[in-house]
Write a structure and sequence with these properties.
Radius of gyration: 14 Å
Number of helices: 7
Helix content: 40-55%
Distance between the termini: 14 Å
Strand content: 5-15%
């Protein structure tokens, strides 16, 4: 199974796995699954850390690639197609980071690991 971690799921997987649902934790830990993190999560974590909104993520903010690689996660870059689809999504959701994750999930045919039930209305497969 191919999984894309929502930013909160990525942070919890790295720092507080007990906050993940059992199903999400098991899927992330299953070596048979390809667990991906989006470049947009790197930006979201770094931005929120810089603004003082995520003080506990200093290591992730400053060493994102090393931290994610060390966990065996792969990287999903943001393509122009992802950005275009995210910007054109006719949805009321305004968070630009979430819009990219939704677009990537739709276009890549992956499961989005997220506790955000709001995402269910955007024609994606969400795992929690």
């Amino acid at each position: 199974m191919r999984l894309l971690l929502d930013t909160h799921a990525l942070i919890w997987a790295a720092q507080a796995p007990e906050r993940l649902s059992e199903r999400a934790r098991n899927a992330i830990e299953d070596a048979a699954n390809d667990v991906m993190v989006s470049a947009v999560s790197a930006m979201e974590i770094a931005t929120k850390y810089r603004l003082g909104k995520l003080a506990v993520t200093a290591r992730l903010a400053e060493h994102f690639v090393d931290e994610m690689s060390g966990r065996g996660f792969s990287f999903l870059p943001i393509s122009p197609d992802h950005a275009q689809r995210g910007g054109l999504l006719a949805i009321p959701h305004r968070d630009p980071w979430d819009r990219i994750l939704i677009a990537q999930t739709q276009m890549e045919g992956v499961y989005l690991v997220s506790n955000e039930q709001l995402f269910d209305q955007f024609a994606i497969c969400r795992l929690w």
